[in-house]
Amino acid sequence: MNEFEDLLNSVSEVNTGDVVTAEVLTVDADQANVVISGTGVEGVLTRRELTNDREVNVAELVKPGETLEVLVLRQVVGKDTDTVTYLVSKKRLEARKAWDKLVGREEEVVTVKVTRAVKGGLSVEFEGLRGFIPASMIDTRFTRNTERFVGQEIDAKIKEVDPAENRFILSRREVVEERAVAARAEVFGKLSAGSIVTGKVARITSFGAFVDLGGVDGLIHLTELSHDRNVSPKSVVSVGDEVDVKVLALDEEAGRVSLSLKATTPGPWDGVEQKLAAGDVIEGKIKRLTDFGAFVEVLPGIDGLVHISQISHKRVENPKDVLTVGQEVSVKVLEVNAENERVSLSIKALEERPAPAEGEQGEKRQPRTRRPKRDNTKRDYELPETQTGFSMADLFGDIEL
To answer: Is the pLDDT score of 162 beyond 80?
Structure first.
């Protein structure tokens, strides 16, 4: 017992909680053995007290002869020997220094490394100190795949620091929002309706595609993606594609930009006058039927209208009674209006007018019998008050013949 007490007294100058300098003696995969400078007392620096990485080889982080600043945690006495060593920590000393750096720095932006995606958010590290970014504070939109952030260094705003509770909360969303406001002001300062700009497809929805214009997302509505009708956005663009788009409208207050992809690509109506003219007879396929006629594809992307009155020489009550979708028909071009994107067609113009039905030949419409014009000439005689009981002689008796 006396020898053991003498051994403890020999290391009395090293106390728990001291910050000391230690030299690395030996290193293996799990720990490093050190000697505390100026004391001759040895210590153990385990992987757990060196780094948060549970898989790393300690020999990759420290080398024999290297000098480290460490925190003394506690004494360790060997079970089978009277050897006394100390458990030291480099990680906790860095964390203590980090806490000192963080206190009073709420609302400042710092760079942190994402170490893990955990339930409810992201676990991050700042100078050896573990922090947390809640899921609601990761981005401006809900982030379903948080794993994509693991291993990245990101900027986040300090929201709460409490060393006593080991509480360190940050927000990446606020940094993203502030930068988006600045980027939006810059982008809107450069954009104007009618201009052609280049952007990258950021995401695709059922109603169109959003294009990143350098900090502002503009929308290409489904109807502005392609000259073709009824297309799926995914069949036209993919996430990551660089596209040239035309700016249709701007709303800086709402942060909205309306874009068009089809306006920057040749359309089916470009140069249609050289491909189609009145009087041409062509073959086409009926694309759709309406109550007022049939639309026939005459060129790729161009449908012409056969009005119900141009379907047949006979009376047609409904186009569906005589035509079907997908049917191939011969049509005559009546008019091409490229400005209004209209083509008028006729089926009956290619058909011979039927002969009149039996009994109709030679029949003429009887002229109406006209009533004689009324004589409005003023008479130079007066009729008697009554026409009863008088003759022509009574009227003209005084006239000599």
So the answer is: yes
331-379 tens-digit pLDDT: 999 999 888 889 999 999 998 887 766 655 544 455 555 555 555 555 4
For residue 399, give both structure tokens.
């006239």
d(Cα 210, Cα 350) in Å, to the nearest integer?
A: 48
CA pair distance 344, 337, nearest whole angstrom: 8
Which residues does 9 contact at the CB level (< 8 Å), separation at least 6? Answer: none
List the Cα angle 158/162/165 in 5-degree steps. Answer: 135
CA distance 23 to 16: 18
Please report which residue ranges of 203-330 form alpha helices under DSSP H. 233-236, 272-275
Structure tokens at 391: 């003759």
Four-CA torsion 16, 18, 23, 28, nearest 10 degrees: 40
Cβ count near 39 (within 10 Å)? 16
Judge residue 114's burial from the number of C-beta atoms within 10 Å of its C-beta, 0-12 exposed, 13-18 middle, 19 or more buried.
buried
Helix, strand, or coil here: 222?
Answer: helix
Q: Pick the closest to residue 334 from 343, 325, 342, 322 (CA basis).
A: 343
3-state SS class at 307 = strand
The phi-psi region of residue 202 (left if phi > 0; otherwise alpha if psi is between -120 and 50; otherwise beta) is alpha
| Helices (runs of H) and strands (runs of E) counted in the chain | 6, 20
